[in-house]
Amino acid sequence: MIINNIQEVIGNTPLFLIPEKIHGIKGLELYAKCEFLNPFGSVKDRTAMGLLREAKNYEYIIESSSGNTAKALGVLASIQGKKLLDVSRKMHQQEVEDIIKIIGTEIKSLPAGSECPDPNDPNSPLEVIKRIMNENPGKYYYTDQFSNSGNPKIHEETTAKEIDDDIGTPDFFFAGLGTTGSSKGIRDYFASRGNMQSIGIITAGHSHLPGIRNSQEMFEVGLFDPKLYADFSEVDEQNAIDYMLVLIRKCGLLVGPTSGGTFFGALQYFKKQNPEDLIGKKAVFIACDRLESYTGYLREKRKSLFEEENLEKIPENSEKIAVQTIENIEENSGEILVDMRSYVSYDLGHIKGSLNFPFEDLRKYLASDYLPFPKESKIIFICPFGEESAILAEIATRLGYNASSLAGGFLEFREKFPEKIV
């Protein structure tokens, strides 16, 4: 294939069918729309094309973005002979800021605070953009990703149509809610083509998940209309990271935590439904962007991913139990299965007979060199992939407990023995 304009390869991303043994929902076809395969690495590549449609007569573009929109707008503006001024709060990911600078975008950094528009804050990105435009009348075109109808329109014309061409109208659609452009555009397309339910994925409480807002922040986004969504599913950053790792290690999709959060949010929603009603249904979620920009974020939120012991020196003193060994573990009263995943992940599905003690809670006990289990009992720790459980089993063994780790973790066990999951 020969091209002469990078925009020719924006879009036409594949749908990846998540194997049922990975998502664990009988009879459901669950697809990831692989937007991370766009040339600049995210679903925002399409958004940037839509935002720039009315900017033909302008040399200068102004926007507020601390992530993927700024990357895509910066590149497209540059190849069109335009310059982008990005007005935003201090960027959360240093990698993203570095890329935006390399592209040639001018960044005006503002004091820390919410990225959401706030007319009462003189340092709100929107208020600063208004001042700049008033001081330079006619100079800038404001792409306004939070309110520009070109944002959802490009997804209605391209993203939704591609899904329709591939599988027809899905029964369920899931998207992490940021500007809400992709979810609104896709919902608008399918509104007259079938009974598709749109589920919005938002962050829980004070969790920070790049690109996804919480319920309070959503109402400050101009494109957001709660009536477009059948329901909302809340996710936190740790569950998002867990399921990002599932997509990477089990499916080969090199995505970031936002995609993991959307995947987890979909599974959480389905957990509340009647399983019989999901047989034969089709669902799509947006795998929105690539992993590489989030290494700093992941170092902060999940340090164990980068520890040398975790990656290269899995503990040798504690025993690693093969999944086959505990197939019938509930019949052996002397062994304790300890599921270290979050309460929500445990509720989505766990090994029959296991107890739920999240990793963070166990760490608090370990601070006192103690675990809430009898030392004479055999303890088998369980985490998603068998890595953190191996580390914890090693520590527990040093404290005198008869501890071991489930090799391959919960996910490998579920693949081999789905009937043992409750």
Describe the 3D structure.
- The structure is a single chain.
- With 422 residues, the chain is an alpha/beta fold.
- The chain has 17 helices and 15 strands.
- The chain has a six-stranded mixed β-sheet with strand order 1-2-10-7-8-9, with helices on both faces. The protein has a five-stranded parallel β-sheet with strand order 11-15-14-12-13, covered by helices on one side. Strands 5-4-3-6 form a four-stranded parallel β-sheet, with helices on both faces.
- The termini are far apart.
- About 2% of the residues have low confidence.
Brief account:
By secondary structure, the protein is α/β, with parallel strands linked by helices.
SSE topology:
Layout: E1 15-18, H1 20-23, E2 29-34, H2 44-51, E3 60-63, H3 68-79, E4 83-89, H4 94-103, E5 106-110, H5 125-135, E6 140-142, H6 150-167, E7 172-176, H7 181-190, E8 197-203, H8 215-218, E9 231-235, H9 237-251, H10 257-271, H11 275-278, E10 282-287, H12 295-301, H13 308-311, E11 319-321, E12 335-339, H14 343-348, E13 355-356, H15 359-366, E14 378-382, H16 388-398, E15 402-406, H17 409-416
Parallel strand pairs: 2-10, 3-4, 3-6, 4-5, 7-8, 7-10, 8-9, 11-15, 12-13, 12-14, 14-15
Antiparallel strand pairs: 1-2
Helix pairs in contact: 2-3, 2-6, 3-4, 6-7, 9-10
